[in-house]
Specification:
Chain lengths: 315, 219
């Protein structure tokens, strides 16, 4: 025996904790060789899938929150504009409108805004309007709906218009409604994209698992012949795919977080987008951790099912 | 413990390699399986370690009809059978120690429970200082002994050895034969496929002879 190494006590195996799974230190005694499962290409593909999933997820969260804000706005209140009119004094217009509102069921409170309130509302749009005191400003009536109100808006608009000239029910409600349905479509689109990403990831993993089993055919057969149940082989293989999912998922997440931070930064710089981009809030970021977790779960389960199915067909 | 009745075997659509093979191995017995190269010794062993299905006939292992044994029950049966493959089939990405420990590891047992046993066995077959070596760095004889160690490490009820002395010098051959006889004395049924006449003559054990696809028995 030429082997100089006489310290032949097998060294204790390093603990296979989750950190070693992420940084890729495969436990020394893996029965199945990694066989490209954790190769750079596959990790890159899974990272890209995770990145896209994070973007879709982030977009979904953002849009959902905006839509909720809008909905709250929509459900809580509405505004009535009272435009100055030659034939009738503004006070009379307002009291006519209030009289109509008084008869409508589901209205909690209706009050005319003071001129100062209106100026405060318009300032952001018109600038400090101190010198345009004489600019004819519309009066506004702020209406607060009770929470279970079911007001027929078009009927109300007609009655208000009939009550006095120059009274208009603000139609931003309709505009918001359209925005909301667009938001809902966007959420469904995100869900569709997330499903597609999941399916693609599963398909990639199934493919890679089959390739890995084929490449390790001899190992698998010997494992069987020494009495390993299919579950043992599945555990060995799925461990590599868990590692793949964690590494790919973590990389994708990191790239996505950088992207979101960049968007938020560009948004706050102003001018990059016409609409203010709410971006992700600090409290949203932990939710993104779901993505690598789900990716790792997906790769692991897909690999396990594939192994069990392929082996089930062997003798 | 092993019963073959009118068993036939073929590879795919090829000719029948084995025809009407019938025999019976008692628990605790030791037999040789002999016959010229290409006669079908390895093929017969494949039937016994459940790597191949017969094209006809009945095979019963430990009282289980292999034709009706479910896939989930196969690992349990295989663990009672130790196999020394003719071409060893050691896994290249594992060390010698890990290869030999494999049958114990796949049962889900904790390594701490069996490490000492495995190391003792490796030392006994003369591989004590080669435990961390990869199989490809072992000589033919060392690989042979590693393969034998892996076959016996789980204390199987039945040991099937396919040409286990094919790669060792006569002296080591006799030593391995003594190992098989010792295992047999401890209760393991042993079947040794070989075309090494010296080995057969040295032990006076009964012989199963395959010739032209048929099996005869010689006491
Ligand atoms: N996998 C296989 N596919 C087809 N034919 C095979 C296969 N293995 C062995 N054979 C054939 O079966 C016959 C018996 O082979 P084998 O059982 O290996 O004989 P032995 O072990 O006695 O030398 C030989 O003719 C061989 O060519
Ligand atoms: Mg042979």
């Amino acid at each position: 025996m030429t082997d100089a190494d006489t310290s032949d006590k097998a060294s204790p195996r390093p603990a296979s904790n989750w950190i070693s799974l992420i940084v890729g230190r495969t436990p020394r005694s893996g029965i199945m060789p990694p066989a490209d499962v954790t190769g750079a290409t596959l990790v890159l593909v899974v990272a890209a899938m995770s990145y896209l999933a994070c973007l879709a997820f982030g977009a979904m969260v953002t849009v959902t929150r905006s839509a909720n804000d809008w909905t709250a706005q929509l459900e809580g209140s509405l505004t009535i504009q009272v435009k100055p009119h030659a034939e009738i004094a503004t006070e009379d217009q307002i009291s006519a409108a209030l009289a109509v509102l008084d008869e409508v069921e589901g209205i909690e409170r209706a009050s005319a805004l003071s001129e100062a309130d209106i100026r405060a509302l318009l300032d952001p749009w018109l600038g400090e309007t101190t010198e345009s005191e004489d600019l004819p400003l519309p009066s506004l009536i702020d209406v607060e709906l009770s929470s279970d109100a079911n007001v027929d808006m078009s009927r109300l608009a007609e009655r208000l218009a009939a009550a006095a000239p120059g009274i208009e029910l603000d139609t931003h409600r309709q505009w918001l409604g359209e925005l909301l349905s667009a938001a809902r479509s966007a959420v469904w689109l995100s869900i569709g994209i997330l499903s597609l990403i999941t399916l693609t990831t599963v398909a990639i993993v199934v493919f890679a698992t089959r390739a890995s089993l084929a490449a390790n055919h001899e190992s698998v057969e010997v494992l069987h012949l020494v009495g390993a149940p299919d579950e043992f082989v599945a555990n060995e293989v799925q461990r590599h795919f868990l590692q793949l999912g964690l590494r790919g998922g973590a990389s994708g997440l990191a790239a996505a977080v950088l992207t979101f931070l960049a968007i938020t930064w560009l948004g706050s710089e102003g001018g990059a987008f016409l609409l203010p981009v709410p971006g992700l809030m600090l409290s949203d970021y932990p939710w993104l951790l779901l993505v690598p977790a789900i990716v790792a779960l997906t790769t692991t389960l897909a690999a396990r099912m594939t192994v069990l199915r392929v082996l089930g067909r062997m003798i | 413990m092993v019963r073959f009745e009118n068993v036939g075997m073929r590879y795919g659509m090829g000719p029948e390699i084995l025809r009407d093979v019938s025999f019976h191995l008692e628990p605790g017995s030791l037999h040789f399986l002999t016959g010229p190269s290409g006669a079908g010794k390895t093929s017969l062993l494949k039937l016994m370690f459940l790597a191949h299905k017969p094209s006809r006939g009945l095979i019963s292992m430990f009282g289980h009809d292999v034709a009706t044994t479910s896939r989930a029950d196969l690992p349990g049966l295989r663990r009672r059978i130790g196999v020394v493959f003719q071409e060893f089939r050691l896994l290249e990405h594992l060390t010698t120690y890990e290869n030999v420990a494999l049958p114990l590891k796949v049962t889900g047992r904790n390594e701490a429970e069996y490490r000492d046993d495995v190391e003792e066995l490796l030392t006994w077959v003369g591989l004590g200082d080669r435990m961390q070596a990869r199989p490809s760095t072992l000589s033919g004889g060392e690989q042979q002994r590693a393969a034998i160690a892996r076959a016996v490490v789980g204390r199987p009820a039945l040991l099937l050895a396919d040409e286990p002395t094919g790669n060792v010098d006569p002296e080591m051959g006799q030593r391995l034969l003594r190992l098989f006889i010792e295992l047999n004395r401890l209760g393991t049924s042993v079947l040794i496929a070989t075309h090494d006449r010296a080995l057969v003559d040295a032990s006076r054990a009964p012989e199963l002879i395959i010739q032209n696809g048929e099996l005869t028995y010689r006491d």
